[in-house]
Amino acid sequence: MLALWRPGDYALTLLAEADIPWEPDPLRSHPEQRDWLLGLYQAELARQGVAYTLLQGGQAERLAQAWQALGRAGLPKK
Questions:
Q1: pTM for the predicted model, two decimal places
Q2: d(Cα 17, Cα 56) in Å, to the nearest integer?
Q3: Which segments of the chain are extended strands (E)?
Q4: Distance CA 37, CA 14 (A)
Q5: How far is it, in rounded angstroms, from Cα 31 to Cα 28?
Q6: pLDDT digits (tens, 9 = 90+) for 2-39
């Protein structure tokens, strides 16, 4: 799976903070280790030199932060 990860292929990286209630679905795992996993993701992004935007808060706040990040990156809103 890591062979598929090519961070240089992306214009923008968004990372979601673990600050909302965990809900099970087929893509989520480790509900008790969310903060630890977030730290791993942040450390690996830093190690790779990948800038990211951390999305925090509720749905509306996260969406607004994502749109702001898109604007800063010069990416078009669709």
A1: 0.77
A2: 5
A3: 14-16, 53-55
A4: 15
A5: 8
A6: 676 776 777 889 999 999 888 888 777 777 889 999 99
